[in-house]
Design brief:
Layout (H helix, E strand, L loop, with lengths): L1 H10 L26 E4 L8 H11 L3 E4 L5 H7 L4 E5 L3 H10 L2 E4 L7 H8 L4 E4 L4 H4 L6 H4 L6 E4 L4 H13 L6 H9 L3 H21 L14
Parallel strand pairs: 1-2, 1-4, 2-3, 4-5, 5-6
Helix pairs in contact: 2-8, 5-9
Length: 228
């Protein structure tokens, strides 16, 4: 995973990652064909890279629906083209409905994990993601056969992190959309659910407790309570 690789690079240690729980039971497919729009869930801070998505859709002329609030929203909305629609903050039910109806989620940022990408997949919708960070663990790319050979694809990776590369990824997605199954995408997302989290976290706690019981107590060099 991206996190374990980072730990190995900076600390020289191996690690096991327990992904956070995603409420995949709350978000479900609606069994209808998707509407003709793409979805972006924004936080409107620089690393979220909403500007990349907006510029990509300026050139594509496709409809992009943007939800969320944040410091940069007003500036980005003012400069956005007419095919990019800002809805502002929406509640959980509205967001779940948008996930289920969108053609695909646009995910231009790099995250450690990325709950939004998993939520969209819980609704059976593909993700077009920047291919770094958590997206490499949560999105199975149709355009990387060596990685997805044993797993059904759930989206597209793009790189570099530019509007041009994202626009090209959207076109590639539309050319290969039939290779993406809503049922398979939903099935993949379920592995990041709450039951899995409880099970894996419980296993890690039990392993840690068992390991501490088996390890001999540390002895201070000044400890004279026993004879050698």
């Amino acid at each position: 995973s991206a996190i374990s690789d980072r730990i190995a690079t900076h600390y020289g240690r191996t690690s096991e990652v327990v992904w956070p729980p995603v409420d995949v039971e709350r978000i479900r497919p609606n069994a209808l064909p998707p509407d003709d729009f793409y979805l972006l869930v924004g936080g409107f801070v620089p690393y979220k890279c909403e500007s990349i998505a907006i510029e990509a859709f300026r050139s594509l002329k496709r409809r992009l629906v943007v939800v969320g609030e944040g410091p940069m929203r007003n500036r980005l909305e003012t400069a956005a083209p007419p095919n990019v629609e800002f809805l502002g903050r929406v509640d959980d039910a509205e967001l779940a409905d948008l996930y289920a109806r969108c053609r695909a989620l646009i995910y231009p940022q790099e995250e450690d994990f990325g709950i939004v990408a998993v939520e969209a997949q819980a609704a059976g919708r593909p993700v077009i993601a920047f291919g770094r960070g958590g997206a490499r663990d949560t999105v199975v790319p149709v355009n990387a056969p060596g990685i997805s050979a044993n797993r059904e694809p759930t989206g597209i990776w793009f790189a570099p992190q530019t509007s041009k590369a994202l626009a090209e990824a959207v076109v590639y997605f539309e050319e290969n959309e039939s290779a993406l199954s809503s049922e398979a995408i939903r099935k993949w997302a379920k592995r990041f659910g709450r039951d899995r989290f409880r099970r894996e976290l419980g296993d890690q706690i039990r392993n840690a407790v068992d390991g501490s019981r088996q390890a001999p107590p540390a002895r201070s060099p000044n400890d004279r309570s026993r004879r050698d």
